Amino acid sequence: MLDQYKQQRPYLVALDSIIFGFDGESLKILLVKRGVEEKTWSLMGGWLQPDESLGQAASRILFELTGLTNVYLEQLHAFGEPNRDPIVRTVSVAYFSLVKIADYDSKISGDFQAHWFSIYDLPPLLFDHGDMVDLAIKRLRYKAAQHPIGFELLNEKFTIPQLKKLYDAIYNTEFDKRNFSRKILSTNLLIKLPEKQKGFSRRGAFFYTVDTEKYHHVADSFLNFIPS
Amino acid sequence: MLDQYKQQRPYLVALDSIIFGFDGESLKILLVKRGVEEKTWSLMGGWLQPDESLGQAASRILFELTGLTNVYLEQLHAFGEPNRDPIVRTVSVAYFSLVKIADYDSKISGDFQAHWFSIYDLPPLLFDHGDMVDLAIKRLRYKAAQHPIGFELLNEKFTIPQLKKLYDAIYNTEFDKRNFSRKILSTNLLIKLPEKQKGFSRRGAFFYTVDTEKYHHVADSFLNFIPS
DNA sequence: ACAAAAGTGTTCTAGTTACACCCATGA
DNA sequence: TCATGGGTGTAACTAGAACACTTTTGT
Asked: What domain of life does the native source organism fall in (chains A, B) (predicted)?
């Protein structure tokens, strides 16, 4: 190995994931109580292994703790304050993830205590995980305003009122349902299904599904997605 | 140290900066030829030291190589493919920086060969630095569309035509000067100075300067900043 | 007086907002 | 039949796009 490399100090590299879910009413984050600090809630996290990329590591850790695969996962920010982990200096790369809460299997996390918390009512968090969450919420709002990523938090089939509730929850406001549905439908990203949702309202709302073809194709070209 | 930590492998952590500058005509990036790979152009980079945060390290490295302080520096993305550096596994956190090209002192980089390249005419780059640059350009476009960060690339005093040329260069297009100046001035972020630029055109264009007070205040609240 | 860049105004269009009533259905 | 949530239309306003002529001044 070259001198230039030998002189350098290595550091532990961790991955932490902010996992967003939506239960139909409010926007939630999945937190766990784990190892070192059993008394404090923290994000789901783990260590980078020698044979994997950062994204692969985040994805693996998410799978190990939740059983979920094929979820929306995006790098958020690297955190590296010298003392962010008081035991050993660790650089943590935070990811944020959007999951379909119904697909999450709570048995998987096994020895961990895991719980979904409303983003408006979070407990104190380990290390700088609170900063990570704050940034993730900001990023979600920023991003969801311009790209229709909200679908990632809903089931395959969903209704317009459900989607509106999700956006209401993300922005902690109430959008106008007429403008909302007009704007959403004008993207032409939704396919109306013949079935209606039963049981929730008397009339029942039509189910829609995402035109995944178009969705992935245009995913990068959106601006100004929030309705009034 | 706890077992959980001991079992983990540490990695080298590097910082690499994509440094944007604008010479009045085209948008440029500062590249160097350095140590290991003397034949290949690369981004300015260095190693994370034990006592500094990621941002501090990026800032220090930028200073050491360019003499610049107080520049716009923003974290871009962490890159961690297992073999991105074929010699030793290294995680690199990329930053992007906007500097006033006139302030850059080429003598500082000393033993390094350093050169400004047009973003539309870049040489092959070391490791995954090409990916970093691509992402940085994308981010600059995305960001400059919504936040008036363009000022960071110009001198204290600048003219509207200069600012338009900068935006033309960023987006590789030509904006309409009437719409451009209307939109820029409508932000109320510019203060018109009594002096005119001499020597470039016969008539001379008025200088403006940024109302830094307002600028920093509203920096986070901009959307839809690109004129037609 | 002319060349070269600076500066400025208007019309048209498209998108956003605000707002209220009828519909379908199960109980 | 009535209560509940689902679904839709229109008018006013605002922002963006397209477009051309006049002004200043050094040579």
From this structure: Bacteria
H helices of B54-211, in order, are 54-66, 129-144, 160-171, 177-186
Tokens at residue A191, please? 């396919």
User: Residue A203's CB: how many other CB atoms inside 10 A?
Assistant: 7
Domain that includes residue B204, residue range: 149-218
Model confidence pLDDT, tens digit, residues A9-52: 999 999 999 999 999 989 999 999 876 667 899 999 999 999 99
Q: To probe the interface with A, which of B74, B77, B112, B138 has the most A CB atoms within 10 Å?
A: B77
For residue B117, the model assigns a pLDDT of 96
What pLDDT shows up at residue A169? 94
CA A70, distance to chain mean position in Å, is 12
- Best residue of A16, A36, A77, A141 to probe chain B, by most B CBs closer than 10 Å: A77
CA distance B222 to chain A (A): 11
List, as ranges, residues 169-208 from B with C-beta within 8 Å of A.
none
- Tell whether the model's pLDDT for residue A93 goes beyond 80: yes
User: What CATH number is attached to the domain comprising A178?
Assistant: 1.10.10.10
pTM of the model: 0.92
| A220 touches B at CB < 8 Å | no
Any alpha helices (H) in B11-159, and if so which ranges? 54-66, 129-144
Please tell me whether residues B90 and B135 are part of one structural domain.
yes
A12 belongs to a structural domain: yes
Domain boundary residue, one of A110, A144, A178: A144
